[in-house]
Write a structure and sequence with these properties.
158 residues; 3 helices; elongated
Length: 158
């Protein structure tokens, strides 16, 4: 009994000494995820190509629910960014408040008799500050007689 206690004590001391001498693994975040790599030009271009491929695959793989909202899977796609830019330009034509398009930072789409896009847009306002605005853009189906895009609503995202 005494020897088993001594043996356990020696094993415990050895384990503590080994743990104290091992270098700590670098961690990042709450759960020890590895530190993210810094972005470089090639990696950013690769992400852009990946994003375009994801957008192209989206319509083939997604289940379409008529009237249901779906989050936009690829807000960086040129079509989505173009819709946001168009929405800000159309709003400026109507309100003449000097907003400038920054980028689309989020959104959802909804299939109806065309496509509703609910976009969250980062803009630069007249005094140089950033602001978030919500826009709803309706795009009719290509077969419809008056195939014109429409800005349904635009306002601050507060």
């Amino acid at each position: 009994m005494r020897t088993s206690f001594l043996l356990l004590l020696v094993i415990g001391v050895v384990a503590v000494v080994q743990a104290a001498t091992m270098p700590a693994a670098p961690t990042f975040g709450l759960f020890g995820e590895p530190r993210p790599r810094p972005l470089d030009r090639r990696r950013i271009q690769g992400l852009g190509k990946w994003a375009e491929a994801e957008h192209a695959k989206r319509s083939a793989n997604d289940e379409i629910i008529f009237g249901g909202l779906r989050p936009l899977k690829n807000i960086y796609h040129p079509k989505i960014q173009g819709l946001g830019q168009w929405a800000v330009a159309e709003h400026v034509k109507r309100a003449n408040d000097g907003l400038k398009f920054g980028r689309v930072v989020g959104g959802e789409d909804q299939l109806v008799a065309g496509m509703n896009y609910f976009l969250l847009i980062q803009v630069l306002n007249g005094n140089g500050g950033n602001g978030l605005y919500k826009a709803r853009v309706y795009e009719p189906l290509e077969e419809s007689p008056n195939n014109t895009r429409e800005l349904v609503s635009f306002g601050p995202a507060n």
